[in-house]
Amino acid sequence: MRHLLLALPFALLPVIAHANEHHHHDHHDHHDEHASLGSHEHGVAQLDAALEGTVLEIELRSPAINLLGFEHAANSAEDKRKVADARAQLEQPGRLFGLSAEAGCKLDEARLESPLFAGKGHEHEHEHEHEQHDAGTHSDVHAHYRYDCSTPDALTGLDLRALFEAFPGTEKIQAQVIGPNGQQGKLLRANQAQITF
């Protein structure tokens, strides 16, 4: 299954490029003109989802500033509270992705990785710290979730409105999905936050 998620950015690159191109003509946002899939752009996150059989995998990659409001190491009590709050929300993905209850999806695995998170579940933390140090002051958050769904046919898509509400620094999500009806990509915003499988 993981190979499906890894293939998504390449398989849907033309779809996302077209969505971004269409968006440029509508709004002429200079940040969009420089967006590229997988780049570190404030306000923009990437989400890949694959539904195969009863298994649903979701990966979310975002600049830390979208989720925390900053990217530096949390030194103050306020910053540490923001990190703890964001981590607590990311550890409850059922609230963020709008999975239909009828699908009976149970979380099998959740992994959160960021140089800004400390403690359990961060086996690759030092590796990421070095990568981030080399890349400058930009820090990213990577979340991976694996669900087992008892009735996958009832899972028609994802609704990310709660994710946009929880993390208002996230303005856009470049979403890519593979499901029973093939693959698609879509640029999501708070007012257009649904994507179907």
From TrEMBL:
Region annotated Disordered, chain positions: 22-42
Keyword Cell wall biogenesis/degradation included in the entry's annotation: no
Biased composition (Basic and acidic residues): 29-42
Signal peptide span: 1-19
Superkingdom to which the source organism belongs: Bacteria
Entry-linked Pfam families: ZrgA
Record key words, sorted: Signal
Protein name (database record): DUF2796 domain-containing protein
